[in-house]
Specification:
The chain is mainly α. Helices cover about 65% and strands about 0% of the residues. Among the domains are: about 40 residues, no CATH class; about 45 residues. It contains seven helices and no strands.
Length: about 140
Amino acid sequence: MICMRNTHWTDDSFLAALYGAAGEDEHVVACVDCRRRLQSLRQRRALLRATELEVSEEFLAAQRRSIKERLVPRARRRALRFVPVMAAILLLIAVMVTVRHGPEPPKPAAVVSDEKVFEEVFTLVSDPEPQAVAPIRYLFEVQQ
């Protein structure tokens, strides 16, 4: 029989009907493919439930112990997760302290009177020979 709506159930719809979370609608009643698939899933589930194995208490206890052992290193990893954050905070504090209490700004030069400035300028202008030439001139002087 061909489905009238041309939309079959999804896997989620089958799982919901299989576990009792949703009921069957008219589509499963009308659609042969969906009805067969749901019946097949129910038979498979019944077969699996009938062949369930008994699990010993020792096995369950060993399983719990192994889970607890695996949880301990996670706690250590969680503690180590904050190390980079703390290092960044310490670096930020160090930068803030050095910027706030950094080197003092240079003190202004001593105040020189106008007379002293004019005197130095006048001596530079009145001397016909630049100061850079003086060492060279001493090379050519004859010493006595």
